[in-house]
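Course assignment 3, question 2. Fill in each field.
Student: A.L.
Task: Predict the tertiary structure for the chain below.
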Amino acid sequence: MTQANDTKPDYALVIHGGAGTITRDKLTPELEADIRATLNSALATGQNILAGGGTAVDAITATIQVLENSPHFNAGKGAVFTAEGKNEMDSSIMDGSDLNAGAVSGVSNVKNPITLARSVMEKSVHVMLQGHGAEQFADEQGIERAEDAYFYTDYRWGQLQDAKAKQQGPILDHDGKKHSSVEEITGGDYKFGTVGAVARDKNGNLAAGTSTGGMTNKSHGRVGDAPIIGAGTYANNASCAVSATGHGEYFIRATVARNICALMEYAGLSLDEASKRIVKDELVKMGGDGGIIAVDKDGNTAMPFNTPGMFRGRVTNLMDAEVAIYED
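Answer field:
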């Protein structure tokens, strides 16, 4: 799903709710409908801001907050559990107009990590804060906190138990069949679920933001690509804005978000060409699963991924909002 028109849209907004082994047999009709409704609600929230002349930064902040407040995505309320049974969240945001950026990693009990990342960008002299220091900064800035119970869902807790069982050797599925790992049953999607948004506003400014709970059963202070500027998030008015989702270790090594913009800036590739080259070619060669959303300086959008599915959606003033889940 790539959009390119001779007529430039006044504004454009693209969102994702994670990529991975997302197939029709994984979702009940009711759950799929609920997820689609949440994606549409997020798009409507951002579109209202952009249509009213609001900034790209404001639009993606509000849009990501909607996704963080949903238990369906691995961010905010729906964040996965670490090996210790905790929620540790990462987030980042970047303003394409001045290349200012903010990020947080390993934060707990912060209701909307994207809000904290934005405060780091706008209210501090730093780009990234982590752990307790980031949480202390959240309190200083009056960022809303939440108790552990807010982030708990049976589904995410069950994922942690499954992942731990995988470490114990062969396990049994509900049919009694032995599997060597949980990944054979679940499709190995424990590393997916990040949310993100990119936008171009009426003034031509771009912005990108990403938020995640990381990887189920992660340990040793693991940090993925979501809070790393240039890997999971990047925005530059000269080229494009990108938010990524997938197996973060590969996205870090491939500096995915920045490379897409760089291919446009230095090699003259279109948004479609640059994003597909990185996601469908370079990442695949490395063995990295996932996808990206992007918007360029002219309002063209792209949503390529190399997995069976990616929760995604987009809207501009020239087209109605559309959401999609599966590859087809």
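Instructor remarks: The two ends are 10 Å apart (CA to CA). The domain at 2-326 is CATH 3.60.20.30 (Glutamine Phosphoribosylpyrophosphate, subunit 1, domain 1).
Grade: pending
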